[in-house]
Specification:
Layout: H1 3-12, H2 19-30, H3 37-44, H4 53-65, E1 69-74, E2 77-82, E3 91-95, E4 101-104, H5 109-115, E5 127-130, H6 133-136
Helix pairs in contact: 3-4
Length: 137
């Protein structure tokens, strides 16, 4: 998702365009990795020295609720990234070290559905975790 689209979604959902929200969204728009609230605080510390983790968490949760950000849990910590705008169903590999994302053009749900005859699958989330080539070496 682009920064401009994220700002439009904020406006359409009645959230004000504030300098701190803009900075958070610009950070996510420029960085394709999953980031924790502490990563956001560290990245924006010079620009917004008084921004608290509470403010960051509230904004991240709001953005996730509006589907501006995607959320996952890595190592027991909530992490976020800009919502993927790519057309077509796909999943992601997520580096547990640096948060880098690699899109996967496959879905294991066809096989899972075969293993669950008579069940109705309504939704799913499939993520693969490991280390990218840069973090493996």
């Amino acid at each position: 998702m682009t920064f401009e689209k994220a700002i439009r979604l904020l406006r359409e959902n009645g959230l004000k365009r504030t300098p701190s929200r803009e900075s958070i969204l610009r950070l996510f728009a420029s960085d394709g990795r999953y980031l924790a609230a502490s990563d956001v605080r560290d990245a924006l510390a010079f620009e917004h020295p008084g921004m608290s983790l509470d403010t960051i968490y509230r904004n991240l949760s709001s953005f996730a609720g509006l589907e501006i950000l995607e959320e996952t849990e890595l190592g027991g910590e909530r992490k976020f990234r800009m919502h993927c705008d790519r057309d077509g169903h796909h999943h992601h590999f997520i580096c547990m070290e640096c948060g880098r994302i690699q899109e996967l053009d496959l879905c294991p749900m066809d096989r899972v559905a075969e293993l669950l005859p008579g069940f109705t699958i309504e939704d799913h989330k499939f993520e693969v975790y490991g280390r990218c080539p840069d973090c493996s070496s």
